[in-house]
Amino acid sequence: MTDSPVTLTQLSNGLTIHLKEIHTAPIISHWVWYRVGSRNETPGITGISHWVEHMQFKGTPMFPAGMLDKAISREGGYWNAFTYLDWTTFFETMPADKIELAMRLEANRMAESQYKPEEVESERTVIISERQGHENEPRFRLGEAIQKAAFASHPYHHEVIGEIEDLRAITRDDLFNYYRSYYVPRNAIVAIAGDFDTPSMLARLEELYGALPGGNPPAVRPPLEPAQDAERRLEVTGPGHTTYLQLSYHAPAASHPDFFAFSVLDSLLTGATGLNMFGGGGVSNKTSRLYRSLVDGELAVSVGGGLQATIDPFLYDISATVRPDRTPDDVLRVIDEEVLRLQDGQVTSEEIARAIKQARALFAYGSENITNQAFWLGYAEMFDRYAWFEQYTDRLAQVTAQDIQRAAQHYLVPSNRVVGAYLPTGGEEIGEEEE
Amino acid sequence: MRGLRPVNWKTLPGPDDITLVELPNGITVLARPNFNSPSIVISGYLTSGSLFDPNAQLGLSQFTAMALMRGTQSKTFQQIYDSIESVGATLGFGTSVHNISFGGRALAEDLPLLLSLFSEAARTPTFPNEQIERVRAQIMTHLAIRAQDTADLASLEFDNIIFSGHPYSRPEDGYPETIANITRADLEQFHRAYYGPRGMVIVVVGAVEPQKAVDLVRQTLGDWENPLQPVPPEMPAITLLESSVRRQIDVPGKVQTDLVMGTVGPARCAPEWLAASLGNSILGQFGMMGRIGESVREQAGLAYHASTSLNAWISAGSWEVTAGVNPENLQRSIDLILSELARFSTEPVTREELDDSQANYIGRLPLSLESNGGVANALVNLFRFQLGLDYYQRYPQMVKSVTPEMVLEAARLYLHPDRLAIVSAGPALGDA
Predict the structure, then answer these.
(1) A2 touches chain B (CB under 8 A)
(2) What is the pTM of this model?
(3) Percent of chain A with pLDDT over 90
(4) Interface predicted TM-score of the whole assembly (ipTM), two decimals
(5) Residue of chain A nearest B3, judged by CA positions
(6) For residue A303, what are the contacts with CB-CB under 8 A and spacing of at least 6?
(7) Mean pLDDT (chain A, rounded)
(8) Alpha carbons B297 and B295: distance in angstroms, whole number
(9) Judgement on whether residues B188 and B278 belong to the same structural domain of the protein
(10) Are residues B249 and B206 part of one domain?
(11) How far is B101 from chain A (nearest CA, A)?
(12) What does pLDDT average to over chain B?
């Protein structure tokens, strides 16, 4: 699927290095991945992983706050960071001759971020504002309620942004200690793709990162979520005139052999999705089974699916925007009929071949973009091994109709799901005033 | 570090590697090869848009564009999407005030398929009744969601105020009552009257030889004619506000307030556009959202996002500050932003600030052009705004030639802190 060789190695302090030379454009993308996310959080400190990610932009003695972003922008680079269930990642994509700056900065903030109390307080209100922006969205509120209902003991119970009470209570020391525990070479991967020469890049990485103490990241084994024994249903009400339905089934972990059959199953039900984070775009889903039955069937105006690659079993979502003249139950009934067809084994090899060609196209689009290629280098290591990514399309191609049938029979049963509906209260008039 | 090479500006798109052909029916074809990935992108536009929508049927142009792929003389909706999705390709149409835009991507082997579907959809749509009603239901749901989206509501009202009486004041997606007014005959009529090859631009970028791309476009679209196609009308003048206008839109049940404040900005072809754009970077983009991000987010901690944007179109643009804030912090945020706007429009930016943004503009150019989609978008803009084929090669020098005085001049020309539209949408302010 990808041509140029990948160098996988490790420094003596435990830092994993993945490098891939790509000489199509004078660009390098540099990523640092940490194996920490909301999965590592305990009650009382939910949201702390994401907040630590924010604090990492607040400066070190060598790169004071405000200087970092200016320095990157000045060189024409762009940078960002993401916090997710299992991981946190930071990246910079720069003109190739300027990547040195990003490497120095990432190595430095792996060890020397300051967490000044006044910065913590100013960021507290920024993060609460970020959460309040999400709360304006009906689908955020529905998704959050479903996650809570789906997980009683596992930390996938809460949203990455965290509970508002915890965001008000987390202290500077909580943040700093969390940072010192998890942001260490032994818990990290540096992944770089682009226009460089591997031996000189390796030598420079050794100089910059090699002297940092490896650290002892806590071994985290969250309690396994007991199998759900009965369907759970919930309703969220709020302003608006639009009804949403979301079904979330407990799904296999990324490393589970069923994950690939499940991916093809999702592709048949709700349309093709790839592994691209940048520049990939998607393929429309108008020939997927659920689009045909729900949207062509005039029950919903849109439908989509989402399967996440995670360390522990997470959720497979089917979401629909319900037509105003229909009810969530109408939509649910038809989804259940389509699931039944999969469980009865009504899948052809042509459909599977189509899903594979779609996956191949999405890979080609994703490979146009060096930032995306560097993302691929680190991503799979956060929930499995790099080999998971290398084997991705081959393993999809091995999926059979029987595998899909088995996955549908095993996972897509009512007792394994949460069904949530957002019911709009409507009615309120939008007012306008001139001051 | 050893092993690194300096940026070679000659690798940027320019007259040497862009193939440009104008077909006899008025279609301009641009092609640029890239064999690094086995994929291709097409992108372009036709010269009609929502400016032709009657007020009572606002959204007609967009409705028409959304309905093109719902059935053609030779294919049903499902046949069209079967052929596209089966090969992992995409194709779509959209509308702006001046243009019908389109874009698609596919593996290179499927370029002929993509072009032939484009041609069918653009030339022979049949607008089947049943499909039209489904599209209408989707638009209505989109409008119902928009009516609850605080950022969208603030932005709609902002455009309504600053572009009063101009086509830019009208949302391309219309309103529920105007969408309800549109019949199938209206869609057919709009298509018949306004879709045609004259002035159309199509760009093909990716793993195909340029001559082959041009030949394929000629084979599929070379015989398209539409004698009815009108010349786009003159746009009316835009009148600046006499004094600032403040509006609050109450949206019950929301937690956060979205704020939009600003004014009319330069057209993309205006001589001061580049100085305004660099100034905008300093004001609300550079680093962590420029001066306004520094003041509202970093120093005061009032918002997750607070930034500015300079949107430039054919006859004008908008220069706006947007922020999402807790209603309790709304007035404080407005005051901080006003004081930044006052400083920006009375004092020149510093040499250091300008150097930073100039370096950013020049350095990021190769990044914006690394993917086929990025290059295609850049080539479309060359034509849409008449920038010249050598624009990207001249660009670094043009950026460097902007001075702090030119930025101040652009700010004085456009950003009048006492003549702004200031619109907020969120919880009723008394309830905060």
Answers:
(1) no
(2) 0.91
(3) 81
(4) 0.86
(5) A197
(6) A270, A285, A288, A290, A291, A294, A295, A318, A319, A320, A321
(7) 93
(8) 6
(9) no
(10) no
(11) 17
(12) 94
